[in-house]
TrEMBL record:
Keywords: Membrane, Transmembrane, Transmembrane helix. The lineage of its organism: Bacteria, Pseudomonadati, Bacteroidota, Cytophagia, Cytophagales. Pfam families: PepSY (PF03413), PepSY_TM (PF03929). The keyword Transmembrane applies. Residues 63-121 form the PepSY domain. The chain crosses the membrane at residues 15-39, 149-169, 200-223, 347-368. This is Membrane protein. InterPro entries: PepSY (IPR025711), PepSY-ass_TM (IPR005625). It comes from Marivirga lumbricoides.
């Protein structure tokens, strides 16, 4: 191939360069906010332990779920619509309370399961900070659809940057493959900066591609629908699913939640966190979800619907039994946030997001260095021509 011919590699290099320059600032903001948001729950628990942590008193036992519900409903003058029960005995319970059936989302109250004391609500300075970070990540704090579109288009560009970056990373000669896997720290700062961009970008490429492709589900409805068609299962299809109907007996007395939990625990015999959804309607089943805990815990949860009057199993969904396409469709959010395999994957995502945040910076520096090099070469060439 002649020296002056426009090659495929040069084409990808130009795409990578100009798309990176065009979207650099937006991608920096989106990646930085995503990095900060990764450990949101851990940071909230660390900065506000009084809401999330409780001391287990000696010679005392947990109050029943029904007792806690009665105490919270009396205190708030509302109705508890869900209760989250953690596996950790030193963690508070979270109860969601609605003031009316029409209220879309209830207020979350953190409660000491040993005393019934309300420790706090979902709001607060730390929660408000992360709410701002989420809005910055999703739509750049721009109200309406404009922010979503800007982030969405920048994310599409990011996908092309990742793909073109992988092509550029591939060495021209097989013997140079090893150079792409390491950073030459003993070289000059320009080479180190190039290696930081090239090598770290390669190592994080797969996770960043997953984040980008799943993140587009929040930006564009057409993309979400298209992905649902490709997968063969509806993305976000499990949100707000209605409970099955049951026949209300003459006495209309519901069983204690402990009895329903016992039935759920017989079906899902492993350590995990529970979330019990309590419907307003007396004719609806009670839904109990259980998810595993641990460093490598899967984000997939098991779900069971029970007749609240006799604990009869009406419907049961085990995540492990779902077809692969349904597992993917129901895991879009944890695939995007890094919660797909517990703390293990969150750490990997945090590192990848941190790398992604650095890529626009190191990329711009590479571009500036190339411009300086071209100007210096042009200046030198003009100087030689003048001397001649």
């Amino acid at each position: 191939m002649s020296k002056g011919k426009y090659s495929v590699r040069k084409f990808f290099n130009d795409i990578h360069l100009w798309m990176g320059v065009a979207s650099g600032i937006i991608l920096f903001i989106v990646c930085l906010s995503g990095t900060i948001y990764t450990f949101r729950h851990e940071v909230e628990h660390a900065l506000e332990p009084e809401k999330y942590e409780v001391k287990k008193p000696e010679n005392s036992s947990l109050l029943s779920s029904n007792q806690l519900i009665a105490l919270v409903e009396k205190e708030t003058s509302g109705k508890v619509t869900s209760i989250s029960i953690p596996a950790d005995e030193t963690s508070s319970y979270e109860l969601s309370v609605k003031s009316s059936p029409e209220e879309r989302r209830g207020t979350g109250y953190y409660v000491n399961p040993y005393t019934g004391e309300i420790l706090g609500t979902q709001g607060g300075a730390v929660s408000d900070f992360f709410l701002v970070i989420m809005r910055l990540h999703r739509w750049l704090l721009i109200e309406g659809d404009a922010g979503k579109i800007i982030v969405g288009v920048s994310t599409i560009i990011f996908v092309f940057l990742i793909i073109s970056g992988i092509v550029i990373w591939m060495p021209k000669k097989w013997k140079n493959w090893k150079q792409g896997f390491k950073i030459k720290y003993n070289a000059n700062w320009k080479r180190v900066n190039h290696d930081l961009h090239n090598t770290l970008g390669f190592y994080s490429a797969i996770l960043l591609l997953i984040m980008a492709l799943t993140g587009l589900c929040w930006s564009f409805g057409w993309y979400r629908d298209g992905l649902s068609n490709v997968i063969g299962a509806k993305v976000f299809g499990g949100r707000g699913g209605s409970a099955e109907q049951v026949q209300v007996p003459a006495d209309s007395t519901r069983l204690p939640l402990a009895a329903l939990l016992a039935t759920a625990n017989d079906e899902f015999d492993y350590e995990g966190n529970y979330r019990i959804s309590i419907p307003y309607n007396a004719e609806e089943a009670i839904t109990i979800q259980k998810s595993g805990v641990g460093f490598f815990a899967s984000s997939g949860s098991d779900k069971i619907q029970l007749n609240p009057y006799n604990a009869e199993i009406i419907k049961i969904e085990r995540f492990a039994d779902k077809p692969f396409n349904e597992k993917i469709a129901s895991s879009i959010k944890p695939l995007h946030t890094g919660e797909i395999f517990g703390l293990f994957s969150k750490i990997l995502y945090f590192i990848s997001c941190l790398i992604a945040t650095s890529l626009p910076v190191t990329g711009i520096i590479i571009w500036i260095n190339k411009l300086k090099k071209k100007r210096a070469a042009k200046k030198k060439k003009n100087k030689v021509l003048v001397q001649k």
